[in-house]
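Long-time lurker. I teach an intro course on protein structure, and each term I like to show students one example going from raw sequence to a predicted 3D structure in token notation. This year I'd like something fresh instead of my usual example. Would anyone be willing to generate the tokens for the chain below so I can use it in lecture? Attribution to the forum is fine with me.
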Amino acid sequence: MRNAPEPMKRADIDTFFARLAADNPEPASELAYHNAYTLLVAVVLSAQATDAGVNRATKALFAIADTPEAMIALGEEGLKEHIKTIGLFNNKAKNVIALSEILLRDHHGGVPDTREALEALPGVGRKTANVVLNVWFGQPTIAVDTHIFRVANRTGMAKGKTPEEVERKLVKAVPAKWRLHAHHWLILHGRYVCKARRPACPVCPVADLCGFKDKTAAAAAA
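-- Reply from a regular --
Happy to contribute to a lecture. Here you go:
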């Protein structure tokens, strides 16, 4: 059993984000989108899929269907043809068409800017809502995916057994000045440095602040 990390001190959390910000002052989503609707669809499609895989599928899709009206006109079967390389594409296609119909019916074709309204859409859970609220509407939400869940627990920044618990603790722990971009800094750190199987601890810019006791002795090349 791995050793449990020590809780990270608040001053160290501030330094943690200051260093990540110095390396990447304006972090951004790696999903491709060009309006609120395509962001929403891309995030729905990204569940249990990679951003790169979603981007490959949506490049042609968004060229012909970047509004709820156009997506409905494409239809569920047409949508499936574009996203069939993405996991769970049958159910995702059904949800995208259904949420597009609701956006037209209840929101004049726009994407709502409240968690309640977003989570009422098919295929949209708390994580997806948080991403849209943060990326498009500039709200300081933190969407806890597998990367953030791992980093928060491994470093000792916000230990929890569920994504919701980790989210609550992160919102309290992350200083307000870092909260807007915290979501992306943590995701990118987890994706490229604090990786699941072999974290690149020797090249990690925040290794000295981290409570992870089983640090790797050598960095992976990739």
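Some talking points for your students: Residues 89-107 form the longest helix (19 residues). The chain has ten helices and no strands.
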